[in-house]
Design brief:
It contains 12 helices and 5 strands. With about 325 residues, it is mainly alpha-helical. This is DUF1403 family protein.
């Protein structure tokens, strides 16, 4: 089970003490936090899918708040899980934000920054760039990912997103994708999207003729420090969540041999790979009644939780 050294937690400053730090110090702290997270990622645990999707949900909830929406994590989960996959547009603008972050968590890392995938995720974030913008964006990201260090990767992702007129959620999404690519992770881990970062994404785009200029409201040093601290904070939060889900997954796997339902092993796998499952979902030919009985048994055994708090349209997860 992953644990974070006490010294590393103490090394992550709060907003009040950040002014007394320099960029090099914060780069070391962020690097140590990412190294600790990298050890978790490389274990490739069975529950890693649920872990990444739970982080995606947190990122989407923050994105919704930043967009002035009222949907919390429960409402976002409902919007996506209670909608047919073939009818994704009916999830609404907030639900599309969750689909964007779920895409980051689920798609193979080497597919995230292709033009095709960028077009899809930008549509989910509410943008409709033309082919020329998509091509320029993909080329910019490809050049950045080819040789930049970790600090330059983070700040470069933000700068590229702002240069193309995209907001803070897209900036965070691109930064997370580039970090995963640089570290060779099979799947990206949603990190920065759930962080509120001083000066991050707070620039105001301004058009001068045909050139998009960006007016920063903070000096670059302060923004860079804020970004590094946010990454360190996000990495520690992800590690803490991994430890919590590992305990829950161990409980689920421990009771799995007691389950008598024919497709119980498939249900267990789905609980380990996703944030949550709707009780009415069709799984391996199981009836709604049979699936509900199985979930009731898992709740009784303390292996899963009912997440909706409703008597109907119930949702279960680790």
């Amino acid at each position: 089970m992953a644990t974070v050294p006490a010294w590393l937690r103490r090394a992550v400053p709060d907003a009040q003490s950040l002014a007394g730090k320099d960029v090099a110090d914060m780069a070391l702290v962020a690097g140590a936090a990412i190294a600790a997270l990298d050890a978790v990622v490389r274990r490739q645990e069975r529950w890693a899918g649920a872990w990444r999707q739970r982080l995606a949900l947190s990122a989407a909830a923050v994105a919704a708040r930043q967009a002035g929406r009222v949907e919390d994590e429960s409402a976002l989960r409902d919007a996506v899980l209670l909608t047919r996959p073939s009818d994704f547009l009916s999830v609404g603008p907030a639900g599309l934000l969750l689909l964007a972050w779920r895409r980051l968590a689920a798609r193979p890392g080497d597919e995230l920054l292709t033009e095709k995938n960028l077009a899809a995720v930008l549509e989910e974030f509410g943008y409709a760039p033309d082919d020329e913008v998509l091509g320029d964006l993909a080329n910019d990201l490809r050049r950045l990912g080819a040789g930049a260090g970790m600090v330059a990767t983070l700040t470069g992702a933000i700068a590229i997103a702002e240069r193309h007129g995209f907001g803070r959620s897209v900036s965070a999404w691109l930064a997370d994708a580039l970090v995963a690519q640089r570290l060779g992770w099979a799947h990206a881990v949603p990190l920065l999207g759930a962080e509120v970062i001083a000066g991050f994404g707070a620039s105001r785009p301004r058009r001068s003729g045909t050139v998009l200029a960006v007016v920063s409201i903070e000096d670059e040093g302060t923004r860079t420090k804020s970004l590094l601290v946010a990454q360190a904070r996000a990495a520690l939060r992800a590690i803490d969540l991994s430890a919590e889900l590992e305990r829950r997954a161990d409980r689920l796997l421990g009771v799995a041999p007691k389950l008598r339902a024919k497709a119980a092993d498939i249900v267990v796998d789905k609980l380990l790979t996703d944030d949550a499952i709707v009780a009415s979902k069709k799984i391996a030919g199981m009836s709604d009644r049979g699936l509900r009985r199985l979930f009731d048994r898992l709740v009784e055994l303390g292996a899963v939780r009912e997440l909706s708090g409703r008597p109907t349209f119930r949702i279960y997860g680790l």
